[in-house]
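Field notebook, page 673. I keep forgetting to write these up properly, so this time I am using the form the group agreed on. The chain and the ligand, iron/sulfur cluster, are recorded exactly as supplied. Prediction of the bound pose follows.
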Amino acid sequence: MPPLPTERAILGVPGPVFFGLLVLLAIAAFVYSMSRRVRVLLATSPENRFDRIGARIRKTVEYAFLQKRMFRDLYAGVFHIFLFTGFVVLLVRTVALVVEGLVPGFRVLPGTAGDVYTFAKDVFEVLVLAGVAMAVARRAFARPPRLDLTADAWFILFLIALLISADLLAEGAKAALAPRLASAWAPAVSAIARSLSGLPATRLTALYEAAWWTHLVDILFFGNYLPYSKHFHIITAVPNVFFMKLDPMGRLGTPDLEASERFGVSRVEDLSWKSVLDGYTCTECGRCRVVCPTALTGKPLDPKVFIGDVRDAVYEATPAILAAASGRGDGDSSDGRKELIGGWLTEETIWACTTCGFCTSACPVFIIPAVDKITEMRRHLVLERADFPKEMQTAFRGMETNGNPWGISASARADWAKDLPVMSMAEAGERDVEVLFWVGCAGSYEDRAKRVSKAVVEILNEAGVSFAILGTQETCTGDSARRMGNEYLFQLLAQQNVETLNGYGVKKIVTNCPHCFNCIKNEYPAMGGTYEVVHATELVERLLGEGRLRFTEPIRETISYHDACYLGRYNGIYSAPRNVLRAIPGLEIQELPRTCDRGLCCGAGGGRMWMEEKLGTRINQTRMKEIEQAGTGSVGLSCPYCMIMLGNAKEEIGAILELARRAMPRENTAGRG
Ligand code: SF4
Ligand code: SF4
C-alpha cells in the first residue's frame, strides 16, 4: 500500500506520476499479451457455450471457487485452496495498491471494512506462504509421478513466495517506522514489526522501500508472465469452468455432413475456441495421466502430454493465425509449422484412446483432454484421408453391409430369441408394448452376450413386463463407428434406427449394452429420436422395488463389480447394478480398489474393441490383474464389451443379469438357459 501523505516525508516513495506510468506500461503489456491469446480464440472454430447461464454460474461456484474436484487429492486440495483464496484476497489488495498509489490519501476500504480486510489479508498471506511451502515440499520430496518438475513451476512458486514475503516485510517495516499508524488487525505484520523494531529508521526506510518496490514489480511482472506460463490457468481456469461442457459427457457433436466442406480437425484453426481455451488452462497437474488406461499401459497417448501438445501447437500457430485474421497473411496460415496430426500428435496417439472419459472426470478445471478432440481428429483421418488401422475396415464393412461390426448376416440378428417367448414389434401389431428391449449387436450375435439377452427375456417375462424387440429391423446403433471417426456411417445407422423406432411409436427402451444405452439416450435426440432409455439393471432394480420381481434362491459367493465406463462415468449409473447384486440372497459384494467413477476401463471403448492392441501391455489384462488381486471368486459385469474383454483375460465373470436370473424362484427358471 503506498504511504499516506504524512508518511511520504518519512518514507520517500516516488510520486503518483512515476507510479502511474509504471502501472500503465505493465497494463499495456498485459493487454497486448492477452489480446493475442483472445484473438486466437476468436479466429478458431465457433462453439456455443453461452447457453444455460444459471447452470454455468452454479458450476463455477462449485468447481472453480469451492474447488470441489481438487480435494480428491487432499494434500493438493488444501494447498491449492490456500493459494487460490489468497490470490482472490490479494486481488483486492492489488486494486487498492494501484488506486491508492494514483490518488494519495484515498482509501479503497476505509473504516471497519478496511480493518476486516486487513485481518483477512494478513491471515491469507500467511496461508499462501504455507501453501507455497507445501507445494515445494511435494515437488522436492514426494515427487508424485503425475508432476513434471519443470523450471516454470519452480519459478512461479518463487514469484508467489516473493510477492507475499515482500508485502509482509514492507508492511512490517512501515509499522515499525510509524507505530501510531499500524493496524491492530494485522497479527502477522505486527509480529514482523516487533522483530524489526530495534533497527534504525534509515535501515527500516530502506527495507520498506526495497520490499515495497519488490512487491510492486513482482505483481506487474507476474501478471505479464502468466500468459506465457503454464500458470496461465490462474487467469483462464474460472472462465474455462464457466464454459464447461454441460451436455452429457457421452454426447459428441453432430456435424451437418451435407453442409460441411471439411471434416473433423487436422489443423489448429479447425479446433474450437473452447479446445484452445482448454489448452491455455491445463495446469499440468497430471491427474489425467495417472488414471488413463493407455498411459498406464505404456501406449503413446498420455492425456497430459496430449493437451500440452495441442497448446504448444496453438502457440506455434499464433503468429500465423493472427496475421491471417488481420489480413496480413496470405490466408494460408499453416506455412512452416508442424502439422497437428503427424507433427505434434502421432496417429498411434490418436487411435489409442478408449474414450473411457477418466481423464475428463479427473481434471480439476474441466478440460476434456482427449475424447471430443480425438474423435474430431479421427473424423478427419477417416472421412478426409481414409487413413485408419486396417482392421477397422472389417468392422466398418460389417456395419455397412450387415448392420453389425462382426459382419454376420443381418437376417440372423434375432436367431438368439428363436425358441424364447419374445415377440417383435412387427408381431406385436396393435398390442400394448410397455418397453422395447434393445438387444444390441453383442447381445444378438456374441455367444456369451446372447446368454445375457436370454436372461433379460426371462426376467422381463417373470416380472410381467410387456416388451418386444425389433428383431431383424434392429441395426447397430453406430456407437463404435462414431467413436472410430466414421461419422457418416454413424449418421446413416442412427437415421435408420430412429426411423424404425419412431415408426413404431416407441417411447421407452431398455438395453443391456451401455454403449447402445449412451448412444440412444444421449446422441439419438440430435438425430430426431428422443426416448426414455433405461439400463437393464435399472429396470431390474425398479421391478424389485415394485415387488414385481423376487430373488429367493441364494447365491453364496463373494463378487466384485467392474463399472463399465459408458454406464458409470458417462451416465452416472453406479448404484443400480450394485443394488441388484445386493438384493440376491447370500451374495456378498467386495468393491475393487479402483471403483465407481475411478474404475479402470476394460479397453474396449472408442472402437478399440475392433482394433488390435499392439503397443504396451494389454489394458484388459491390467484390469483383470486388479480384479484378481481383490481376491473374489468372480467379477460382476453390466456391459457385453467388458464381458468380452475381461473374459478374454480370464473366465470367472458373471453378468449381473444372469446372476439375477439365477436368483429368481427356482420353479420359474427350471430348465432354462
Ligand atoms: S478417454 Fe480414457 S483412454 Fe482416452 S485419454 Fe482419457 S483416460 Fe486415456
Ligand atoms: S488436462 Fe486437466 S487433469 Fe490433465 S494435466 Fe491438464 S489440468 Fe491436469
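OBSERVATIONS:
- The chain has a mean pLDDT of 91.
- Residues 392-669 form one domain.
FOLLOW-UP: compare against the apo run.
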